[in-house]
Every structure is written in C-alpha cells, then in structure tokens.
Amino acid sequence: MDALHTAGIRLAEALQAGPPWLEKFWISVTSSADPKCIFTVCFPLAYFLDHKVGVSVLWIGLVAEWLNVVLKWFLFGERPFWWIHESGLASKEPLALRQFPVSCETGPGDPSGHCMITGAALWPLLAALTSLASRRSRSPVLKLVPFGAYVLLQLAVGLSRIFVLAHFPHQVVSGILAGAALGWGLQPLTPTARSPLFFVAAALALLLGSLALHGLLLAAGIDIDW
Q1: Does a structural domain hold residue 109?
Q2: How many domains does the chain divide into?
Q3: Is the predicted pLDDT of residue 97 greater than 90, yes or no?
Q4: Of 5, 51, 85, 167, which is the active-site residue?
Q5: pLDDT digits (tens, 9 = 90+) for 20-30
Q6: Mind telling me which SUPFAM superfamilies this protein's record contains (predicted)?
Q7: Is 85 an active-site residue?
Q8: Does the pTM exceed 0.70?
Q9: Residue spans of alpha helices (H) in the chain
Q10: Is residue 199 included in any domain, yes or no?
Q11: Is the distance from CB of 121 to CB of 57 less than 8 angstroms?
C-alpha cells in the first residue's frame, strides 16, 4: 500500500504544481461538491423541476450517505495529509505540497464521500436529462451530452479531492464506481409514491442501524475511530 500511497502523493504534487488559477478552481469544485449540497441545493432544485426526480435525488443521497459511512468503517483508508507525516515520507524527502483549509479532514478516507454520494445522487438527474435529450433529438451526440457532463463532473471532483490532499487516487476511483453503481441500481427503485413520513422513518432506521453497527464493531474490538 505504501507504493500506492506514494504514487498518489506524486499525483497531488503534480496537480498542485499547475497554474495558479487552477487552485481556485479545484477548491471551488471540492466545496461545491460537498455531500451536504445534495440536500440543500440539488434536491430542492430537482424537486422544483420534477417531483419524481427530486424524490429520487433525496432517496439515493440518503442511502449513499449512510452506505459511505459504513464502507469507511470497514475499508478504513488513510488520508494523504496525515499519511505523509505518519509514514515518515515528509521527513525523508522534501515534498512540494501545500495545505488548504479543507485539507485536514479526519476519519477514514475510502471510498471518497464527495465522489460516491454526489455521483449516486446525481444519477436520477442524468437519467432524466438523457431521456429528455432522446425525446427531443435523434442525434446520438446530443444524447451523450448528459453522460459526458456527468463523467467530467466526477473527474473534476475526484481530482479536486486529490489536489487538497483529502483522498488518494484509488479512494477517488472507488468512490466514483460505487456512486455510479448505487445510483444506477437505486434509481428505478425510488419509493416516489411514499409519504414524507416514510422518508423520516427510513432516515431514523438508518441512523439507529449505524449506531448499532458502531456499537457491535467496538464490542468486537475493532477500533473504527482510530
């Protein structure tokens, strides 16, 4: 794993060595793609445009948020900002790396929550826009525009997380793949006909389930808060 982590640090160095204007871009991307924006920005906007799409964004975002926490408990995953010190790499050789206000994230890093939750929750929007493009035009290029935008967004979010030293590249890749798979799998199963009370109950069940799992892991001697 050390070789994989070191390769990730090299990529972060290369990204930070880019043009100064890119720094503001990467930081704005990583801030805009914060998972909480799914609930405060994307869900209200999607719900206003289409009721079913909005509910799907909320539902998938909720499940993805919960699953990301659980996966991190089992996969753990170092954070680049801390790993360069804990591994001794920072003392062995000079590293051309800078710290940002969003660099010092704590907790396990695999998979990337920004990539996984954003990618999963935006899948219903991708499906809706692709369907709309298919109805409005026969051009195969136009039909691929929503998917292309989705891929570019995920790539930008992933690179921004590497840039600020919040994640290693393999954690970004696992987050992107998990998010796309989750969005694709859950989008047709969204309970759009359910009342708001159902979603409150589901959120409470997920919360209690995670607390119970947390307690079981600690009882088993697994320190998930390392």
Answers
A1: yes
A2: 1
A3: no
A4: 167
A5: 889 899 999 99
A6: Acid phosphatase/Vanadium-dependent haloperoxidase
A7: no
A8: yes
A9: 2-16, 20-32, 36-37, 43-49, 51-75, 80-86, 89-92, 113-121, 123-136, 140-163, 169-186, 196-219
A10: yes
A11: yes
Residue whose structure tokens are 């982590």: 5
Residue 208 falls within a domain, yes or no?
Answer: yes
Distance between CA atoms of 175 and 125, rounded to whole angstroms? Answer: 19
Residue 123's pLDDT is what? Answer: 94
Structure tokens at 7: 């390769």
Q: What is the pLDDT of residue 49?
A: 84
Residue 201's domain spans which residues?
A: 1-220
Quick check: is 214 catalytic?
no
Tokens of 214: 């947390």
Burial letters 77-88, b for 16+ CB under 10 A, else e: bbbbbebbeebe
Higher pLDDT, 82 or 91: 82
Number of alpha carbons in the 13 Å side-chain half-sphere of residue 115: 30
pLDDT tens-digit map of 58-79: 999 999 999 999 999 888 888 8
- 225 falls within a domain: no
Write out pLDDT tens, residues 130-157.
888 888 777 777 778 889 999 999 999 9
For the segment 160-186, the average pLDDT, to the nearest whole number, is 94
